[in-house]
Recover the amino acids of this structure.
């Protein structure tokens, strides 16, 4: 009888909870980004649940304790940091953007830092870096506008997919390689794993923000 009870307790614990999923948010230097909240939506065959991730040191733990893991279809990460658009955006970023637009100098840094630089520079989020981005950044610095009208203060990407994309030698010419990097949903076989997200502060071209 005791063995039977132990067996059913074991079966229940394998069915419900016990997934240890860790999510870390990093910048392009792979330093941890701290001032952030993380929610996650779990889609199951019994419905969807939105939960708060628990800060655990520099990273977060996703808790699936009360969810029958066999019903999980996928889960989506929802990082929240759409505040302080002017944070880390200075005239130095304007200088870097202008030099890039005028092709005055080659980028110095890693490919990951270059990906971050380009993403941060496209402040209006239209997929290109032009004088419109320069104008909006200048307006923000001069308090003509309070935030980026068509972009959030931060954007987050699947770091593993970004790293995969920049491994291709011609990644700069082929942005198709980055299809899906902003999709933060993960299938149930990524329960029990560590997931890294890349955070990019809009307008912070020198990547000073954490
Ligand atoms: Ca743009
Ligand atoms: Ca900056």
């Amino acid at each position: 009888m005791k063995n039977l009870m132990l067996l059913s307790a074991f079966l229940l614990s394998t069915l419900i909870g016990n997934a240890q999923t860790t999510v870390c948010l990093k910048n392009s230097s792979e330093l941890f980004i701290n001032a952030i909240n993380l929610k996650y939506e779990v889609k199951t065959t019994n419905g969807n649940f939105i939960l708060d991730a628990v800060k655990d040191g520099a990273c977060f733990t996703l808790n699936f304790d009360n969810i029958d893991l066999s019903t999980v279809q996928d889960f989506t990460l929802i990082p929240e940091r759409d505040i302080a658009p002017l944070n880390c955006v200075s005239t130095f970023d304007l200088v870097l953007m202008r030099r890039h637009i005028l092709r005055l100098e080659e980028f110095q840094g890693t490919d990951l830092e270059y990906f971050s630089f380009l993403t941060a520079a496209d402040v209006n989020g239209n997929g290109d870096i032009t004088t419109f981005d320069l104008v909006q950044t200048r307006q923000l610095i001069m308090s003509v506008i309070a935030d980026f009208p068509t972009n959030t203060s931060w954007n987050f990407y699947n770091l593993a997919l970004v790293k995969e994309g920049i491994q291709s030698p011609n990644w700069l010419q082929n942005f198709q390689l980055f299809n899906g990097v902003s999709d933060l949903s993960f299938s149930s076989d990524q329960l029990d794993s560590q997931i890294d997200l890349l955070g990019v502060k809009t307008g912070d071209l020198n990547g000073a923000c954490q």
In short: The chain is about 25% helix and 25% strand. Residues 4-15 have pLDDT under 50 and may be disordered. The first strand starts at residue 20 and ends at 26.
